[in-house]
Structure to design on (290 residues):
């Protein structure tokens, strides 16, 4: 079981640190308590973990089926022998190729892979090496964002959908197999409702994906840009986010359907090495049942 004194909220609207848990050794009861806390806080932080790839995959699988690491950029993106573990890193190998994805630049606010019809449910990052400064990861709650929206805006967007761009990743790089397109009206993308019910809890959330190339279907281009800017303003209000300063052994996980995240840039000559798993989504984002 999980004693309440071991669940420490890390900010007002999102995230909790779970103390005194060794993720390599959890049983079904403890898992259920973690799952409950995850629904409540949407982001969970476990510190001082020592997870072998086997144990990391074992813990991740408790939340559902795992995606395999995509071939997003040049170089190797999975841990050898563990196709479920992506490497997020700026480190270069002997041939000067990155051993993982996302480099050392800023990753702007986004939720993972919202350009898919069934975007992933959960993402987990586990820190193996961290730079002396920079590279912090922030989370924001899209359930809180929904509540913060003024009624007028909420009512306006309740039946609208955003086309979620699939052309660029959060580091601004072109995804494999796609062509450059900076026009929100013509870029390839997947429509999803702006206001969604969380697939499991049914809690209302704002679902924005990422800002670049986003387009609100049916609106004039400028109208869409202005309304998106307004929605993004509420979603990313500083009081709605938690910024995590990493230590080696930290595991940070987020509900990809009710949060967004971003990463600060860091010195590209420093080393940052994260392992990452992602739980498949089986349900398309859908609007509120009224
Ligand atoms: C991700 C991501 C940010 C980070 O893995 O999906 O956005 O802090 N990572 O590396
Ligand atoms: Mn991401």
């Amino acid at each position: 079981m999980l004693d309440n004194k071991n669940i420490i909220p890390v900010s007002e609207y999102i995230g909790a640190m779970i103390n005194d848990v060794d993720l390599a050794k959890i049983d079904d009861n403890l898992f259920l308590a973690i799952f409950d806390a995850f629904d409540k806080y949407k982001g969970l932080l476990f510190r001082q973990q020592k997870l072998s790839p086997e144990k990391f995959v074992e813990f991740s699988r408790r939340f559902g089926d795992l995606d395999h690491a995509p071939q997003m950029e040049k170089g190797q993106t999975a841990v050898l022998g563990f196709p479920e573990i992506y490497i997020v890193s700026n480190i270069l190998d002997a041939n000067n190729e990155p051993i993982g994805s996302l480099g050392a630049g800023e990753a702007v606010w986004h939720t993972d892979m919202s350009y898919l019809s069934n975007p992933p449910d959960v993402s987990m990052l586990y820190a193996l090496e961290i730079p002396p400064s920079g590279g912090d990861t922030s989370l924001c709650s899209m359930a809180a964002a929904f509540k913060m929206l003024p009624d007028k805006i909420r009512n306006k967007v309740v039946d609208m959908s955003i086309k979620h761009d699939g052309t660029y990743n959060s580091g601004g790089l072109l995804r494999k197999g796609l062509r450059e397109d900076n026009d929100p009206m013509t870029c390839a993308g997947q429509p999803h409702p702006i206001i969604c019910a969380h697939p499991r809890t049914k809690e209302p959330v704002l679902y924005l994906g990422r800002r670049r190339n986003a387009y609100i279907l049916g609106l004039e281009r400028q109208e869409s840009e202005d309304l998106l800017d307004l929605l993004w303003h509420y979603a990313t209000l500083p009081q709605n986010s938690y910024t995590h300063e990493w230590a080696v052994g930290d595991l940070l996980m987020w509900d990809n359907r009710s949060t967004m995240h971003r990463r600060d840039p860091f010195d590209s000559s420093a080393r940052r090495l994260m392992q990452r798993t992602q739980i498949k989504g089986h349900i398309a984002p859908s609007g509120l049942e009224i």
